[in-house]
Specification:
By secondary structure, the chain is mainly alpha-helical. It folds into 2 domains: about 100 residues; about 60 residues. Helices cover about 90% and strands about 0% of the residues. The protein contains 4 helices and no strands. Helix 1 runs antiparallel to helix 2. The two termini are about 125 Å apart.
Length: about 200
């Protein structure tokens, strides 16, 4: 429970103290001493009351200042809490966006890795096929000789000439061998014309 402070009227205590001192000077004995003690007590109480009143006003001003500071601190605290909430929201949005970008990146990376693996597999198949073709060409080159067509025609003409010469001499076996050679060249030339068509 708070006490109500009533300020003393100005100079009321000093007038009372002066009166009691004058009265003490007129009265002798124990009554005079009592009046002087009463005057000293009133003066002491008046000083204490003034000190208490001054202290009360200082305390009241300090309390008012503390209330104002507390209100300002609460406003600043509310603003800080709002800022923190806004930053948390922003952080959550940035985190979600980063997670979405990471997921998109991982998906794109997965697609590219799949394409790269498919390409590597295709390259491996082509390399195997190329090696097989090279081996086939190498095998073919071991059994086949590349000759220009004009040389084959010239050889064909020579087989005809030999065949006629052997026929004139009656060498039937050499004539047959010459005709077989000519026939083989005709087949090669016919096969070449079929390939071109």
């Amino acid at each position: 429970m708070s006490a109500t402070v009533v300020p003393l009227p100005p100079n009321s205590s000093s007038a009372t103290v002066d009166f009691l001192r004058r009265m003490a000077s007129m009265v002798s004995g124990r009554n005079g001493e009592m009046l002087l003690r009463a005057a000293a007590l009133i003066q002491s109480l008046a000083q204490r009351a003034m000190s208490a009143e001054r202290l009360y006003h200082e305390t009241q001003e300090e309390n008012t200042r503390h209330v104002e500071l507390r209100a300002a601190a609460e406003i600043a605290s509310d603003a800080m809490v709002s800022q923190i909430e806004a930053l948390r929201t922003q952080l959550a949005e940035v985190t979600a966006a980063a997670a979405a970008e990471r997921a998109a990146f991982d998906a794109e990376r997965g697609k590219l890795l799949g394409l790269m693996q498919a390409a590597e597999s295709h390259i491996g198949n082509l390399t195997t096929e190329l090696a097989t073709l090279r081996a086939s060409v190498d095998n073919l080159n071991e059994t086949v000789v590349s000759v220009p067509i004009e040389v084959l025609r010239l050889a064909r003409t020579q087989f005809d000439y030999l065949s006629r010469g052997f026929a004139g001499k009656g060498d039937v076996i050499s004539q047959a061998m010459s005709e077989i050679g000519g026939f083989a060249i005709d087949q090669a030339l016919t096969a070449k014309r079929t390939d071109k068509a």
